[in-house]
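Lecture 7 notes: from sequence to structure.
We start with the chain below.
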Amino acid sequence: MSKPVLVIKFGTASITHKSGELNEAVLQEIARQVAILHQDYHIVLVSSGAVGAGKGFIKEYKGSITERKAAAAIGNPLLLAKYTNYFSQYGIAIAQSLCERQHFANRNQFLQLKETYQELWSNGIIPIANENDVVSNLELKFSDNDELATLIATGFGASALLLCTSVGGLLDDQKKIIPFVEQIDEKILGFVDTDKSALGLGGMVSKLNYTRLATRMGIKVVIFGMNKPDGIIEAVAEKTGTVFASQEASLTARQKWLGSGSIIAGKVLVDTGAVDALNKRKSLLAVGIIAVDGEFEKGEVFEILDSDANVIGIARARESSIVIGQNLKTQNFEVANADEIVLL
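Predicted structure tokens for the same chain:
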């Protein structure tokens, strides 16, 4: 791709009024600023707001799963119509991309999605992604659009991921925006207010979890707000919001997909010897496993936990959980090949 990829996510609270109605002034600003960036980047917009835009049409809306699906079905065309109107003023066409979690877990489906986006970009079209709420299986839903944006950013090797929030960045204990974060640690997590917004699904905890994943995959993340002039453009230039530094990552495109897009089917607890071997890019052997949690089949993906139950990586299983459990004492029994392991 001739241009770097930029993924920008807008949450419900960022683009709607408290009543749930779309904030057209914000949508107009998004179109204006993105049109400028469009010259230098291949852009994906990940936009919430469909449920908020459509729920007013549901009588006595209570927020049940079925009601949310119905509200999304109503709100999606309303949301896209507004985006279409404002982007058309700059001669830019947009495309709707309704995604499901399985599209990222299945490598072939993900590659098809990638080819479609590349075709759109080659024609100067900006895809606007959102979860396909109308048909998404409850068991296979994205936790929120922060996850969807992160999966797109990591899968496409984006140069930056921008997450728009109503507070404009990560706030310290004095309620001031922290301008730069080298690494997300316990101190940084301690600043988080666990309250969720009234309209959206996720809060700052969600954003930091997916920010940590993205930065570990070598992607810079900026949490910013639209309450300042040129908020998006300033965020790209690292002049506003909170900038999270990307970590050094020497992963192949397939490993990045495995590390971010896979659906986790189980967990494997390993001893210190296995952790040392994994850090030296060795395969995971059965003798280093303390316990297996959950049931998974050969080819499915499991999390690797150290003896303190910290997630240190993920891997694709060479055997089922049952077979692995039966061979914990077997020498040289390979549970996951080094090429199918991604340390986090």
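Points to note: Residues 196-202 have pLDDT under 50 and may be disordered. The chain has 13 helices and 15 strands.
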